[in-house]
Amino acid sequence: MTEQQMLAYSPAPVMQPASPEGESPAIVDLPRPMLDNDVPLMTALATRMSSREFAATSLPPATLGTMLWAADGINC
Description:
Blueprint: H1 3-8, H2 41-46, H3 61-72
């Protein structure tokens, strides 16, 4: 961006978020996270991988709860 373009620049107007529509999703009670895993941190980091294949079955609630807890970042 040139200096002239920077001087002529004006930010986009502030927009209000859209109003929610429809019904709120049901709250799902998940079990407490499984904290007793005996896999050392470095082993878990070394063996992690991404996958673009998805199973036809859903995750068990305990697995989903543990994954969401770990992804939250505030693991107290």
